[in-house]
Amino acid sequence: MIILQDSELSDPGIQALSGLCSLESNRESVVHSGGINGFITYILNAERRRKSLVAMAMSRVEQLLVLEGAKEGVVKHPNGVQALVKMVFRVSDHEGSESALNSLMILCCDSVEVREEAIGGGSQCSNRTKTKARLLLKMLRSKWAEERKHL
């Protein structure tokens, strides 16, 4: 597989990358080839993209987060966590919001830094998304309390 040099993927490029991810055997290669960076950059430019493709990209990120390399890719991307937070709060018709929230939950369970960055982001959102965000914050608070006990 060719390493993704261009972080700005076109709509057909994101569709092709997503298609590669549909086979479990390709997912590790997609991650190692820079696919997470491509997905995150695409998501960050959501306002210029088709909603259905942005939602698909977000869904693929969530799917790839079972791989440690994908988690590292999101966290190391300068705007990776921000892209997920943006998706939770930006999408008015809920496309991609649930995948973004699930992805944040996966990442926040593993990292205090991600929790802090996620809490710092956000804006206006629907009541359903606010409820999910509150649940995420409750989970984070309980994790913080557990960690403080161990210090």
Question: How is this structure best described in words?
Answer:
The chain is mainly α. It has one domain. About 75% of the residues lie in helices and about 0% in strands. The chain has 9 helices and no strands. The chain has helices spanning about 10-20, 25-30, 35-45, 50-65, 70-75, 80-90, 95-110, 110-120, 125-150. Helix 1 runs parallel beside helix 4, helix 3 crosses helix 6 (about 80-90) and helix 7 (about 95-110) runs antiparallel to helix 8. It is globular and about 50 Å long. The protein starts with 10 loop residues before the first helix and ends with a helix.
Defining key terms:
151 residues, mainly alpha
At a glance:
The protein has helices at residues 11-21, 24-32, 35-44, 51-64, 68-76, 80-90, 97-110, 112-120, 127-150. It is mainly α and 151 residues long. Helix 4 (51-64) runs parallel beside helix 7 and helix 7 packs parallel to helix 9.
